[in-house]
Amino acid sequence: MGVILFTLHCSLFAVSCSEDEGEPAEFDNWQYRNDAAVVEWAANSSYRKIRTYTQDEATDGANSDFIYVEVLETGAGKASPLQTDTARVAYRGRLIPSKTYTEGYVFDESYLGDFNWKTIGTVSGASWIEGFQTALLNMHVGDRWRVYIPYSLAYGSASTTTRPAYSNLIFDIALVDFWHPGETRPDFKGRER
Fold first, then answer.
1. 27-69 pLDDT, tens per residue?
2. Distance (Å, whole) CA 84 – CA 63
3. What's the predicted TM-score (pTM) here?
4. Cα–Cα dist 174/138, whole Å
5. How far apart are CA 93 and CA 128, in angstroms?
């Protein structure tokens, strides 16, 4: 299992953002709120539910053993990347919504502004967090998904200056290309960062 490398966003946030006395802090009860979000995702029948690749298919599994997918666009590709492949993706990663960040705080992204296949910035890699990799193993070239990842399939109890501990992650992921070890690809026509 690898770790996705993030280019830190220029804006930083404090774990406790409240200016007004008596107002709840931005991330109070954060683990509880993230656990509750996973229960909501699991109950949403419009989401595709995909078991993490590290879990045995024969067991039922907990809600946190799955990623939850909202399909934004369906590509024309037929094959999916393998664990040993390198994938070229565009993504935007957010936390669950909070008081200040009603759409979820964007902690990393490979493109700015609205998504556009012709102008997106991409990254290439073979190692990703478990939930991100689970999504890629089920995507086809041209797919664009919103992927809801429980914190147990992300960074668990680890925190950074842009992401509190026990943070579920919400990624918009577009699979641009992938290739097997030893294969080469022509230059990407969009922007590579």
1. 899 999 999 999 999 999 999 999 988 776 766 778 898 999 9
2. 27
3. 0.82
4. 12
5. 13
